[in-house]
Specification:
Shape: elongated
Distance between the termini: 28 Å
Number of domains: 2
Number of helices: 6
Strand content: 25-35%
């Protein structure tokens, strides 16, 4: 966790030895002040959010793009009591309430489906996928804005063909029921969902390995998450 409550203030740790209590589970949180990584809080007996992952500068940078009261917001299922922390929640308690999940590492499809089911009960959901590891080469080689370009509401989309033998990565995200965005080399791309991609392709489903993208500025992406 990057933030915890200390004397009524939500903040990262500032010194070694700091302790506080997790508002979600009541467990003890201790400060972690690494020499090179991001300061954060650690549950003494393990994080109460089973979806929690190690976080670094990429997560922190994106969280800081949104107001502090939108970062790391705890949500619960009123029926089951299941509880998880959204990386970012904008427009809480409004019709435009939007959860943004920042995904730096790979994620099993079963967990993707579970997160979408949980967060989409009462919210729109956006994913921002950081393409930085072994998929970086495949994604970069796939970008071809001259391939079947289509304008939709003033936005230029193009149909790409995933470069490489395995299409598992892109097919997984094509099946998402949430809004999916990729960050690649500090650029933002929106992945067209099934209905929109079929419209772009002239009414037919895209073939395996094919996917439709449009490019957004950082400001456009932040406005979309914020519901502006």
């Amino acid at each position: 966790m990057l933030y915890a409550w200390i004397d009524g203030v939500k903040r990262p740790p500032t010194a070694k030895g700091e302790r506080t209590t997790c508002h979600d589970c009541g467990g003890t949180l201790t400060s972690v002040i690494p020499a090179e990584n991001v300061r954060h809080w650690r549950h003494k007996t393990g994080d109460c959010d089973s979806w929690s992952e190690p976080e670094g500068p990429w997560h922190l940078g994106w969280k800081e793009a949104f107001p502090e009261d939108c970062r790391e917001i705890s949500l619960s299922d009123s029926i089951t009591g299941e509880r998880h922390r959204a990386d970012v929640l904008c427009g809480a308690d409004t019709s435009n309430a939007t959860v943004l999940e920042l995904q730096h590492s790979s994620i099993p499809e079963e967990e993707r489906i579970a997160r979408e089911a949980f967060y989409q009960q009462d919210h729109r959901m956006f994913w921002l996928i950081h393409i930085h590891n072994h998929q970086k080469w495949n994604f970069g080689m796939s970008l071809n804005w001259q391939s079947r370009p289509v304008n939709v509401k003033g936005k230029k989309f193009a149909i790409m063909q995933w470069y490489g033998r395995s299409t598992q990565f892109i097919e997984k995200w094509k099946r998402s029921t949430a809004y999916v965005f990729f960050e690649f080399q500090e650029q933002i791309f929106f992945l067209a969902g099934k209905p929109l991609s079929e419209r772009i392709a002239g009414g037919t489903p895209l073939e395996k390995g094919q996917y439709a993208l449009c490019h957004l500025t950082h400001e456009e992406f932040i406005r979309s998450v914020s519901g502006a």
